[in-house]
Amino acid sequence: MIPISVLDLSPIPEGFSAADALANTLDLARHAESWGYRRFWLAEHHNSAGIASAATSVLIGHVAGGTKTIRVGAGGVMLPNHAPLVIAEQFGTLATLYPDRIDLGLGRAPGTDMATARALRRGLDQHDGFPNDVVELLGYFEDEPEEGARVRAIPGVGTHVPIWILGSSLYGAQLAAHLGLPYAFASHFAPGALEQAVEIYRRTFRPSPWLDKPHFMLAVNVFAAPTDEEGSYLRTTMQLGFARLRTGMPGQLPRPVDDLDAHISPEIRPMVDEALRISAVGSPDSVRAALDDFIARYEPDELILTGQIHDHAARLRSFEIAAEVLGALPVKA
């Protein structure tokens, strides 16, 4: 069975609060643990009315403390927003509290608008310091700092927190291959460069102290339900939310709608469909067929599943069905 994981943005559905979203996140993590998921990752976003995972490391600690065995991590921390030492101390602390359960995925984008990015980290400049920041961060988790180093992450030294590179372009694939790190592609919302990025990552990968061969994670949207019709209905939440985001009208996670075309213009709909094409939708048989196709086509080492579903009970059932069809759980009669 291919390992499966969950990516959660701690969505705030229309009609609910951030407190509801955070409670739902922990509930989903506990269920995911019982269903055989390997990892539960949370994503950093800021200044978003529909996402409650802005303080990502804090929420990771909450989820790790409320679960027992599942790995918990960032998918990811947007490193340009932070000093590497601060992230090393945060995740070193998490790894000390929850040994061998913490992952750190790193993204290069700010995960927000530029005004918010400036509010997060004063003095943003135009040069790309991401590769150097990643290397600096890797060093903080090693057993001993470089000779003569005056700065250490405490906690952090010796924790060996696994670092992943996240990306939606060729840049992340090249960096992950160059550094010899695992790579997760954001195919759930930006699949345009997926095939080329995976090929480059695997072809140019260099073994490292952290990884001896390429390790690729594919992100897939899942909207699973008892019937195809219900799965398609659940998916309209993410389609509508994505369209609103791309047209400058973000907000809380929308309720699903019966007639999506009445809510999305014909000019926007093709863009939404292309962006979200790496999706498994519908009945258990339909979801199984889609996931089998993605696995055969891209040969990932892991799958990470996400699903922006308004109703929490329906979201739980969707992830449960995915676990059943991928073999982590016995299929219910």
What does the model show?
The chain is α/β, with parallel strands linked by helices. It has one domain (4-223, 300-325): TIM Barrel (Alpha-Beta Barrel), CATH 3.20.20. The chain contains 11 helices and 9 strands. Strand 5, helix 6 and strand 6 form a beta-alpha-beta unit.
For this entry, give a set of tags.
333 residues, alpha/beta, TIM Barrel, 11 helices, 9 strands, globular
Kindly report the average pLDDT value.
Answer: 93
Question: Helix/strand-derived class?
Answer: alpha/beta
CATH topology grouping: TIM Barrel
Which sequence of strands runs across the widest sheet?
1-2-3-4-5-6-7-9
- Total count of helical runs of at least 4 residues: 11
SSE topology sketch:
Layout: E1 4-8, H1 18-34, E2 39-42, H2 56-65, E3 71-78, H3 84-97, E4 102-107, H4 114-120, H5 130-140, E5 163-167, H6 170-179, E6 183-185, H7 194-204, E7 216-224, H8 228-246, H9 269-275, E8 279-282, H10 284-298, E9 302-306, H11 312-325
Parallel strand pairs: 1-2, 1-9, 2-3, 3-4, 4-5, 5-6, 6-7, 7-8, 7-9
Helix pairs in contact: 1-11, 3-5, 6-7, 10-11
What is this structure, in a nutshell?
The protein has helices at residues 18-34, 56-65, 84-97, 114-120, 130-140, 170-179, 194-204, 228-246, 269-275, 284-298, 312-325, and strands at residues 4-8, 39-42, 71-78, 102-107, 163-167, 183-185, 216-224, 279-282, 302-306. It is α/β, with parallel strands linked by helices.
